[in-house]
Amino acid sequence: MRSIARFVSARRTAWMALVIAAAAVAALFAFLPKGEADAFPPSGLPDSSQAKQVSELLERFPSADTTVGILVFSRDGAALTDADTAAIAQRAAALAADSIAPQAVVPQLSDDGRAALVAVPLDASEAADDVAGTAETLRTTAADGLPDGLVAQLTGPVGFQADISNAFAGADFRLLLVTVLVVAVLLIVTYRSPVLWIVPLVVVGAADGLARVVVTALADPLGITIDASIGGILSVLVFGAGTNYALLLVARYREELTRQEDRHAAMLTAVTSAGPAIAASGGTVALSLITLLLAELSGNRALGFACAIGVLIAIAAALLVLPAALVVCGRGLFWPFIPRAGTDADHGGKPGVWRRLGLGVRRRPAV
To answer: Which Pfam families does the record cross-reference, listed alphabetically (predicted)?
Structure first.
């Protein structure tokens, strides 16, 4: 640990550590295969489960290759007019052009005459390849040229899947944005500096991006499916763990800056003392996540695989990149409360409330 600490904190090698880290991250982003997370997680059920066995039996039926989009035409509760019925028949004929069973695309009026239903059989595999596009085509075709007040709404399997997909559209980005904002606020409040919080946030953000790329690249050859929900959990975990490690390291670094004039020596001491705790803490979390590889549900195995890699990358960022970035930027990062050598409580300074609390616990641990 001391040799690593010396490399990332020394005057001549700190810059080198940053350059090597930046080059390595850029290379991984450039050359690792890119992939997209599945919008819908797989069932993940073991082969022994009854639900999985029933699903496999259903796939043998001819209807397994067919899905359906159901268009419902209505006039806000009012009875449909003759013009409405004629328009619906025209729309049904247009919808039949995209159906695998056009003869089945026939309007069905409700008993009270207030609604009409048109079922459009579709090829299941083609619809699954582009659920959103299929749903949009059905909606556009059904609504084209309808009389004023008559509306067409999509339901059925195609409509349901499209709405679910649309509900989660952008959720990953929103989750990441909220996570970043929460972490930024915590760092600003903790460090009381308008500048210092940027460095840990950038380092942790880069670690999150790298974790996503590495997980996606390794998952496919290993037969592991990473869906959007796992990607969101991975980001939250990397930001949470990375921020936690950053808080510990910066606290030790700040403490050493009040004792040592040379910031490089202060960082060496900080990494040497905080590094084992960070490595042990993160290693324990990573090992516990790896045990999920023994789970029966494939979703749990994928979650453990992805998050274990994310934690390991967060540890590497906290011990190899963050110290170099902090020491290169100098003491000015802590502005306006810049720590100076000789201002420590043990050197005549006034201890803060948390230090007094810590000293009290150390003096009377039983209490």
So the answer is: MMPL
Nearest to 230 by CA among 44, 88, 68: 44
Burial of 259 (0-12, 13-18, 19+ CB in 10 A): middle
Mean pLDDT calculated for residue range 137-166:
90
For 87-135, what is each residue's pLDDT tens digit? 999 999 999 998 998 998 999 999 999 999 999 999 888 888 888 899 9
Q: What is the pLDDT of residues 49-98, one digit of tens each?
A: 666 666 666 566 555 578 899 999 999 889 999 999 999 999 999 999 98
Contact call for residues 315 and 237 (beta carbons, < 8 A): no
> Which position has the token pair 């709404």?
153
Q: How many CA atoms lie within 13 A of 172 on its CB side?
A: 19
Q: Alpha-carbon distance 118 to 348, whole Å?
A: 83
Could you tell me the fold of the domain covering 50-167? Alpha-Beta Plaits (3.30.70)
**Domain spanning 2-39+170-359, CATH architecture:** Up-down Bundle (1.20)
Sheet holding 151-155, edge to edge: 108-109, 115-123, 66-74, 151-155
CA–CA gap between residue 250 and residue 314 (Å, rounded): 15
List the chain domain ranges: 2-39+170-359, 50-167
Closest of 202, 249, 232, 235 to residue 310, by C-alpha: 235
Locate 338 and state its tokens. 């810049």
Decide whether 2-39+170-359 matches 50-167 in CATH topology.
no
Before 351, cis peptide (omega within 30)?
Answer: no
Angstrom distance (rounded) from CA 109 to CA 41:
37
Q: Could you give the dihedral angle defined by the CA atoms of residues 180, 22, 320 and 174, in that order, rounded to the nearest 10 degrees?
A: 10
Cα gap 308→315, rounded to integer Å: 11
- More confident call, 43 vs 129: 129
Half-sphere exposure of 119 (CA within 13 A, CB side): 11
User: How far is Cα 109 from Cα 114, in angstroms, rounded to an integer?
Assistant: 8
Distance between CA atoms of 101 and 109, rounded to whole angstroms? 20
